[in-house]
Amino acid sequence: MPTKKKTFSEQYADLEKITQWFEAEDVDLEEALKKFEEGLGLVKELKTHLNGIENKVTDIKKQFKDVLE
Amino acid sequence: MHTVGVSEFLNIANEVIQPMRDLAVEGEVSGFSIRQSKWVFFSIKDDDAVLECFSMAFKISMPIEDGMKVRVFGYPSIYKKSGRFRYTVERVEPVGEGALKKAYEALKKKLGEEGLFVSERKRAIPEFPARVGFIGSDASAAYSDFIRIMNNRWSGVEILVHDVRVQGDSAPPDIEKAFQFFNKLKEQHPDKAPDVLVLTRGGGSLEDLWAFNDERVARAVFASSIPVVCGVGHEKDESLADYVADIRASTPSNAAEMIVPDQRDVMDRIDSSIGYVESELDQSITKRKHRINTSLYTLEKVVMKVLADVRRVFQSFRISLTHIERLRQEKLIHLRRNSDRFVEKMGGVLALRKRSIEGNERMLAQVNPSHILKRGYAITRNEQGEVIKDAATLKTGDSITIQFGKGRSKALTQ
């Protein structure tokens, strides 16, 4: 089953979790390297989101005829 | 002249006057009262005249009090049972800044007492909303300001625009419907529904902004299950919708600022997050390096100490060995010297002994029985092998053995 792409918000929360993980006293070095790499991946995706995607304006009258009576 | 009954006359009269619906009447309220929470009675007057008004409580959307200047919409009629002329009010709105303010204050007090403004109710909006519902006029400066600021600050948001009238009589029900739409959308398609709603309008006079002080709008904001940001008018303006909303923005642009963060700030936050992670990782590595170095140093110290100990032991062992070797040499010399002397001494002793042995040997040879036997003597032994020295010990027929100088022979005695 393909995993649904995470939203910006979820990815940002993941990055924050990694940051918090590093705040712990003694971190396992191997795990730390893994988390760091994961963090770099997240940063790349977050920046792509910020740099590349434009806002989309939708007129609900055209889009949601079923909800509008 | 045509004659009719009272009832019929009033019917005819009402038919004539009721079509005067196009006229709204302005005047100052007096004698305002509500009976049985249903019927509303008051008069409006000017300097010269009084008009009695009647209405139903649910039709009056604003709090009214005596002295307030209002505009009433409805129709005139004669109440047949009393024959009194009165104006049936369908809708009432305040007139002039003073009245508007009074109405505003009165409604604000009422809604406040009901708890529509309590801060405990205010909900937080998501930090990075994916969808935003816009309730306002899509042809307004407020709309373009909002979209422009949204685009300047953030990306990837879907803005669902619900165009509504923002002033005039149809504005409040329009806005109410828009809220209902978005809340219904949330129920039916939660994945498509906005995370936050923005209710907005550009600046204008108090009358222009009046829809946002309407009780229906205030209640629609209050009832929304989706958090609401309200940005109406200019910074100095305030509206009841502002007070009810979860977040109050001063202008449409400010509403956009409240809804999404500035991507440059977020970019900085992301950079500093990963920077922090990197420096922590660095520190962690340095700490471990330091620990390894300390361990190495300790280990080295231990090894050096052991080595020194071994060396010392070895040294003293070598000294002992030299000492032992010297002792051994000394002993060896001593031994050699002693042994020489011993050999020397022993040589003398041995020669002496040899001579003495040779003497004894000779002597022994002389006494050796075999030598005697050789000379013709014989030894006689009984059956037990005992030498017979006395013939009396023998009986006739005893078996004896006779040993000669050479060989032996057995015999029987006679």
Can you characterise this structure?
The complex is a heterodimer of chains A (69) and B (414). Chain A is mainly α and 69 residues long. Chain A is built from 3 helices and 1 strand, in the order H-H-E-H. Chain A has one domain. The mean pLDDT of chain A is 82. The longest helix of chain A has 24 residues. Chain B has 414 residues and is of the alpha/beta class. Among the domains of chain B are: 89 residues, OB fold (Dihydrolipoamide Acetyltransferase, E2P) (Beta Barrel); 146 residues, Succinyl-CoA synthetase domains (Rossmann fold, 3-Layer(aba) Sandwich); 41 residues, no CATH class. Helix content of chain B is 47%, strand content 21%. Chain B has 9 helices and 13 strands. In chain B, the strands form 3 sheets. In chain B, strands 1-2-3-5-4 form a 5-stranded mixed beta barrel. In chain B, helix 3 runs parallel beside helix 7. Chains A and B meet through helix 1, helix 2, strand 1 and helix 3 of A and helix 3, strand 7, helix 4 and helix 8 of B. Strand 1 of chain A pairs parallel with strand 7 of chain B.
Keywords:
heterodimer, A: 69 residues, mainly alpha, 3 helices, 62% helix, B: 414 residues, alpha/beta, OB fold (Dihydrolipoamide Acetyltransferase, E2P), Rossmann fold, 5-stranded mixed barrel, 5-stranded parallel beta sheet, rod-shaped
Helices, strands, pairings?
The complex is a heterodimer of chains A (about 70) and B (about 425).
Chain A (H helix, E strand, L loop, with lengths): L7 H15 L6 H24 L3 E4 H4 L6
Helix pairs in contact in A: 1-2
Chain B lengths: L5 H12 L7 E11 L3 E7 L4 E7 L12 E11 L4 E11 L1 H19 L16 E6 L4 H13 L4 E6 L7 H18 L7 E6 L13 H9 L4 E5 L7 H5 L2 E3 L2 H8 L3 H105 L1 H6 L4 E3 L17 E5 L4 E5 L2
Helix pairs in contact in B: 3-7, 4-5
